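Handout, section B. The chain below has 320 residues.
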Amino acid sequence: MLLQPTRALWLEQGRIVGAASDAAGERPLDVGRKLGLLTAAQHAAMEPATAGMGSRRVGVLLLEQGLLDASELAVLARARALEVVAGVLATPAPHRFTPGAPVPASERVVTSGSALAVAVEVLRRRLTPERVDALLGGPDSIAAPASGAPPLEAVLAQAESLLASRADGLRTVQEIAADANGGDVRALLAALVEVGVLQVTHLAPPAAERVAPTAADLARAAEKLREAHGADYFTLLGLEPAATARAAAEAADRIAGAMDPARYPSAPPGLAEELALIREVVADARAVLCDPALGPAYARALAGHPAEAHGGVANAGPEW
């Protein structure tokens, strides 16, 4: 019978200050190899001498052997602690609490933020796309602060807490993701849901269940199609000419999601093509209005010659 690995975390005032594990991949040498601090040959040579040692003692031994420099000791200790936290979060094994247990000097580590912040940091890197989708649902899901959860600024860095604060129960996941500016905001939101800081308060029906558009869907699509044929980009996106690039991006992403042909597998003939055309013009509008040079130039051109600034596709009416 295979024995389950043993892991231990030490906490002081809500912070993780120590971590130990005998699990494969979580031992100090294994983490050093994973980080590229050790070669395969160095790992194999040092393994017998470091069996059962804490991460600090292993680091000192590697330092003495000239395999690490002083600046890498803390890197190895912290990375090892995060690996142990990841193992604890991923393994539904029995556990017990021992109040007052001192952390061994050889396993003491400094982590930034609370234990909850460390858990979020680990989870956002480890959650699979499938798990993220399961936690958040579709782009129309709405996330909100969970009851009794700590404030975001106690869990995240300032920039990320400001971004995550948009999960206020009033915006969809898609709208929040539009503010990510390159970061994987869905993974961040999913990690916050996983630890109970956020909760998903609404899930729209999956696209596969929305087999036919409603009369309201068709009316909105027809209006947006007319705008795509002749309206300016601000009108198309429902914005004022003074709107910011961020507002343009949010509006374009929202409209593109609403006009996605995949939402209506049983659409009337011609609707899918018309929706695709709307999305194409919306994408053009997003590209222009979000460009720091083209956006202001377009607004000035619209103010001077409103008849010439529009989404330029040949006029046609809906066929459905």
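Note. Confidence is low (pLDDT under 50) at residues 312-317. Compare this with the example in section A.
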